[in-house]
Structures are given as structure tokens and as C-alpha cells.
Amino acid sequence: MSPARRFSIDDEPHLAVRSVACDYGSGTVIGRHAHAFGQLLYATSGAMSVQAAHGSWIVPPGKAVLIPAGSWHSVRMWGRVEMRSLVFPSDREGLLGAAVGGGGDARCRVISVSPLLRELILRAVELRALDVRNGPERRLLEVLADELREAATLPLELPLPAHRQARSVAQWVLARPGDPSTLDVLARRAGAGRRTIERAFRHETGLSFGLWRQKARLLHAVRLLSEGASVTDAALDTGYSSVSAFIATFRDTFGFTPGKLSAARGGDSRLRGTDSGA
User: Fold this and answer.
1) Domains and CATH numbers, the chain
2) What is each CA distance from 165 to 54, 72, 170, 181, 202, in whole angstroms?
3) Mean pLDDT of 61-87
4) What would the pLDDT profile of 176-215 be if each residue is shown by its tens digit?
5) Which of 57, 128, 160, 233 is deepest in the core (most CB within 10 A)?
6) pLDDT tens across 5-39, in order?
7) Phi and psi for 130 in degrees, rounded to 5?
8) Are 65 and 41 in contact (CB under 8 A)?
9) Of 148, 143, 137, which is closest to residue 18 (Cα–Cα)?
């Protein structure tokens, strides 16, 4: 194995990308924090959930989340997670720009990872950084920026309402995704009327309460599947009485079947043995 690449303080201004590989056990939580730089988190196995001020995002294996600079967030691991992280400390030449959430975009987003983007992430992790003074690494950076700009944003965000009583209902559902209680019951428990809660969800999340709860249940199913649950168990635990209906709704929402998550749990054998760390 070649020795770890080292950088001096004089190198720092020229490093457009820094990278780290960390492995985490299921249930590990990285507490609320923010970075001065944009960040990409990619899970080669396991799933991650990212909680920020205005919502939460689930990151299935083989997908990535872009976290803008200054965004306060926490991360929770579901299943054994092999995390590959890129940070973007320097973009003096504008190569990355809006690709990593620049231009005042303060929201996280989960993106699709093409085979090429995946290999670029893994190569950057092997190199530990991309130095713009190095010709091959600069070319890698340019292709990486192109791939990030072209990456499709996936519907894996669950926005949270700010309205106090609607937020209370949302937190109840998130803690008990299989609970069959009607909105009337949930609204009374929160001390509000059904119409008040429905209006708050539509206005502040862009979704009716029914669609919001459906998405919350499906995102919880992603977590269960990432931890090794069967498709049947995931369906039943999230309130579905029909497994086929669960599979169809899951596919229509996310564009892939729950079975694909089960197949992706094994991760990439090339990456075994990386060091753990925060």
C-alpha cells in the first residue's frame, strides 16, 4: 500500500477538493454542526438521514447528498454505512460553482450518482485531494463539476412545516410512521382543527397532509430496508396492508423498487478496510 498523501499549509489554497472515507455502525449519529465549505456525502452501503432546519433527507446507498456551506445539519446512519465525503474548500476559479450549492442556495439536495460520478468520487477519495496545479487532477475536477451539474435531484426530501401545531403532528408521524390515526385525531391531539393543519402542510411543505405522510412512511421504509428488513416487513411497519401496493407506490415515488435497496446493502468490496473517523 502506498503511503498516505500529505499536504502542507502552502498547498491548501490550491486544493479544490478534499476527501475522507469513514465507516460507521448502524445508529451512529453525527450531531448538529455546520461547515464553512460545501460538502458531498456518498454512501456506498447503508443509508444516511440528514436533518436540517427546514426538512430531512434520506440518502440511500449509491446516492449522494450535497450540503451547502453554512447549513446546520445532523446525520444518522441506518445499517452499516460506508461514507465517502468530499469537501470543497477552494473554488477560486469557479469550476464548481452552483454544482455544490453555490449562489445562495442554502438547501441540501439528494442527487443521483451516475457510474462516472461514482468513480470520480472514489478516485478523489483515493487521492485525498484534487490539486488544481496538477494537470490530471484538474481535469478530474472539471469532469466532476460537469457530473455534479448534470446530476438529477431525487425526491428524497421531507420538508417540515414551521407552524407549531402542524410541526407537532409531523413529529408524531415521524416517530410512529405506521400509526393509522386519522388527521382529525392527530389535529385534536395537537390542539388544532383539521383544516388548520391541512392548510399549514399545503402552505409550508407544498404537499397535502396525506401525501406528506405517505412520503414520510416511504422514507422510513428506506431506512428499514437499509438496516436489513425484508420488503414485506418494511411495508407492514409503515402502515401498508398490501405489499404490492407498497412496492408500486415506492417505485412511483422514488423511481426504483425497494428490492434495489436490499441488493445495494453489500457496498463495494474494493473499499473494505478504510479507516473510521469523523
Assistant:
1) 12-150 (2.60.120.280), 160-264 (1.10.10.60)
2) 16, 23, 9, 16, 14
3) 91
4) 998 999 999 999 999 999 999 999 999 999 999 999 999 9
5) 57
6) 777 777 788 888 999 999 999 999 999 999 888 89
7) -120, 120
8) yes
9) 137
The verdict on pTM exceeding 0.85 is no
The Cα–Cα gap between 74 and 51 comes to 5
Name the one residue in this structure whose C-alpha cell is 426530501: 157
Place of cell 438547501: 107
Residues for the chain: how many in total?
A: 278
Tell me how far apart the alpha carbons of residues 251 and 235 are, in angstroms, rounded to a whole number.
13
Q: What is the distance, to the nearest Å, from the Cα of residue 151 to the centroid of all Cα atoms in its chain?
A: 14
Give the whole-number percent of the chain exceeding pLDDT 90: 58
